[in-house]
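From the pipeline queue, job 12 of 40. The input is one protein chain; the requested action is below.

Action: predict structure.
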Amino acid sequence: MFEEGPVGADAGEQGELFPDASLPDELVGYRGPAACQIAGITYRQLDYWARTSLVVPTVRSAQGSGSQRLYSFKDVLVLKVVKRLLDTGVSLQNIRVAVDHLRRRGVRDLARITLFSDGTTVYECTSPEEVVDLLQGGQGVFGIAVSGAIREISGTIHEFPAERADGVELPVEDDLTQRRKARNAG
């Protein structure tokens, strides 16, 4: 079961997560092994979740033997959230309901959400008042701030090779390359 609260968030959070007002490119993806490392899951989990349509790659799906799935930034974020929900004991059935809801949201919308669960039901809270209302029930809950997961992914995803949907691999910039660009630009 997934309980949804009203949407109303502070725009400042978005600015902190995406300071240059850009969002991750939906046409750029990460191959399965990279998505696994970024999200902290096994390839076996990734494959099972793709085959059972729990989390499917939105940039490119596998088309037979030898083809590579490509997972977008949002896909990797959902993989990380699923992993955290599983780690806390939420059933796969309840996670499916939550994932279906999360898929309909944009990355900016997801950044405003904190997911709470009592181990059975997953709740969406978008304001401090909703959190207080949930906690007043007296039950034990745990929370996943989706913005925190976005920050974690944003901090490590650039270390992995990205690929465009048309198959062109994008270069990975190491620290030295970044410093050279900064020195030449300034």
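Job complete. Confidence is low (pLDDT under 50) at residues 5-23.
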